[in-house]
UniProtKB/TrEMBL annotation:
Top-level taxon in the UniProt lineage: Eukaryota
GO BP field: amino acid activation for nonribosomal peptide biosynthetic process
Matches recorded under SUPFAM superfamilies: Acetyl-CoA synthetase-like
Residues annotated as domain AMP-dependent synthetase/ligase: 12-114, 230-410
Region (Disordered): 180-220
Species of origin: Poecilia reticulata
Record protein name field: Aminoadipate-semialdehyde dehydrogenase
InterPro entries in the record: AMP-dep_synth/lig_dom (IPR000873), ANL_N_sf (IPR042099), Beta-ala_Activ/Resist (IPR052091)
Length: 416
């Protein structure tokens, strides 16, 4: 029976590769990178899921995730999903009032906060204008050390309409033993996912996916099917190294994370500041960690510059097997040709779509001869059951000429 959820895909890969490295975090400081094995990721996720289910009952709702790039991010996301909730990524670098507004609009009752970011997280909720915000519980995710297992989570009371937010001062944290959660969870058995219906997995709230009022949109895209399809298309294996290029607030991050973890491959995470240093980033990706799969926007790729692109990224001996460009207009064949060494063998894909249709709606592999013969790169073939149409001003489908692209399908769901 094919896997129905992202967590099913990871569980299947972990059962095949329990002792392979699943996640690697390189801070770029010269210290030994931290890593987690597949069995450790699964155990961490189960621990968090058990704690969520026992203390918060988030089924069918959403849980905020307030954290920066970190080794444990995939385990936290997986744990939230396993509790049958959607996760709402919250950016610590965003203005506090913006974060508070997103939480309010998403109706968040629970938020998981990385422990060393608690002080940064709490000040916005002291504003009198945010008294109506309902946040019942904060989870302090203890990542003071890269222990293979989270031994404890501290829970603290939040704010409500009847109790205005006053920050986290004076709140007495309650230590919750996750070993007890494991025992009670095993007695209850695994949570059934039958009858889930159209349940969201990921809440998007950046500018590229908002309704006219600027409210966040909650999606239940077919990520598990999309990831499975891309695994086949990119011929993924356990030997691959996938770079987490996108921030968590950008939906391609879901593809990055689960494309790796569903294949038994290694997910590489670096601090966001490293993504702003093209030379160092190229060294980390292609010299130190031999990245094989890179899904990026053309803007991020261009930051490397022609020299680094031809020397390190798309060189004759580059480790990069797959370069998937999406999120923006694909560079012209002439540009792509100027970046690639003539002996480079990297497969280049143009992936196109919008958040409302599972992140990517179509895909096109750019044949090497086309780099020398065409002026633009096609959008490619629709993925899964996606329907792509071009309509004119009269809303009629056309096969020639110019018009507006319409994308849809029978299995796409959008909640606003």
């Amino acid at each position: 029976m094919p896997a129905r959820t992202l967590q099913d895909l990871v569980s299947a890969a972990a059962s095949l590769h329990p002792d392979r490295a699943a996640v690697l975090y390189d801070s770029g400081s010269g210290e030994t990178p931290g890593s987690l094995l597949y069995r450790e990721v699964v155990q961490l996720a189960e621990d968090l899921s058990a704690a969520l289910l026992q203390n918060c009952s988030p089924r069918g709702g959403a849980v905020g995730l307030y954290c920066s790039d970190d080794l444990l991010v995939p385990a936290w996301i997986l744990g939230i999903l396993q509790s049958s909730a959607a996760y709402v990524p919250l950016d610590p670098e965003a203005p506090g009032l913006l974060t508070a507004r997103v939480m309010s609009q998403c109706g968040l009752k629970y938020c998981a906060v990385k422990r060393d970011l608690v002080k940064l997280f709490s000040p916005p909720y002291r504003s009198k204008t945010l008294i109506a915000l309902i946040v019942r519980v904060f989870f302090y995710l203890n990542i003071n050390s890269y222990s293979p297992l989270l031994s404890r989570l501290a829970f603290s009371g939040g704010c409500s309409r009847s109790r205005p937010c006053g920050g986290l001062r004076g709140a007495a944290p309650v230590q919750v033993d996750l070993d007890a959660h494991r025992a009670s969870s095993s007695r209850r058995g695994r949570t059934s996912e039958s009858g889930l219906g159209v349940r969201p997995a990921h809440v998007r709230h950046d500018g590229s996916s908002q309704n006219r009022e600027g409210s966040p949109q909650v999606h239940r895209p077919q990520y598990s099917r999309l990831v499975s399809l891309l695994r086949s298309l990119f011929q993924m294996s356990a030997d691959d190294v996938v770079f987490l290029a996108s921030p968590l607030t950008f939906d391609p991050s879901v593809v990055d994370i689960f494309l790796a973890l569903s294949s038994g491959a290694l997910l590489l995470i670096v601090p966001s500041v490293m993504k702003k240093m093209p030379g160092r980033l190229a060294q980390m990706l292609f010299k130190h960690h031999r990245t094989t799969v890179l899904q990026v926007t053309p803007t991020l790729l261009v930051r490397f510059g022609p020299g680094i692109l031809k020397r390190d990224v798309l060189s004759p001996g580059s480790s990069l097997r797959v370069l998937a460009l999406g999120g923006e207009a694909c560079p012209s064949p002439a540009q792509l040709r100027s970046w690639k060494h003539e002996e480079n063998k990297t497969a280049v894909y143009n992936i196109y779509g919008v958040t409302e249709v599972s992140c990517w709606a179509s895909c096109y592999r750019v044949p090497e001869p086309q780099l020398h013969s065409v002026s633009s790169v096609p959008l490619g073939t629709p993925l899964m059951d996606t329907v792509v149409e071009v309509r004119n001003e009269d809303d009629c489908v056309i096969t020639e000429g110019e018009g507006q692209v319409f994308i849809g399908g029978t299995d796409f769901y959008l909640f606003i």
